[in-house]
Amino acid sequence: MRIAIDGPAGAGKSTVAKQVADRLGYLYVDTGAMYRALTWKALQTHTNVHSESDLVNLLKECKITLESTPLGQRVLVNGEDVTDKIRSHEVNQHVAQ
């Protein structure tokens, strides 16, 4: 079973989704973190974030992993923990692309 919650930024979607997943014993998948992880990798590799084909090619070379831990979800790109890095100002400026 999959549950999707959509809405505008800052509406509390992630907060609600985490609580629902926890209560139902489901894995919470932070899709926003996945977009941020790809954006971070694109910035690290100087990939054009405005080019869909460049981003698709980069994604094919990446392994983005979400890990649940007692301290919360961790985000890894090719085994590197980027949980904090994907929340940087630089990523924030480019993730919407």
Describe the structure.
42% of the residues lie in helices and 14% in strands. The protein starts with 12 loop residues before the first helix and ends with a helix. The chain has 97 residues and is of the alpha+beta class. It is globular, with a radius of gyration of 14 Å.
Helix/strand-derived category reads alpha+beta
Global mean pLDDT: 91
Shape: globular
Order the strands across the largest sheet as they lie in space.
Answer: 1-2-3
Radius of gyration: 14 Å
Please provide the count of β strands: 3
Helix fraction bin = 40-55%
Low-confidence stretches: none
Q: Gap between N and C termini, in Å?
A: 30 Å
**Residue share in β-strands:** 5-15%
**Count of separate DSSP helical elements:** 4
Concise structural overview:
This protein is an alpha+beta fold and about 100 residues long. The protein contains four helices and three strands, in the order αααβββα.
Q: In terms of topology, how is this protein built?
A:
Layout: H1 13-24, H2 31-44, H3 52-60, E1 64-69, E2 72-77, E3 80-81, H4 89-94
Antiparallel strand pairs: 1-2, 2-3
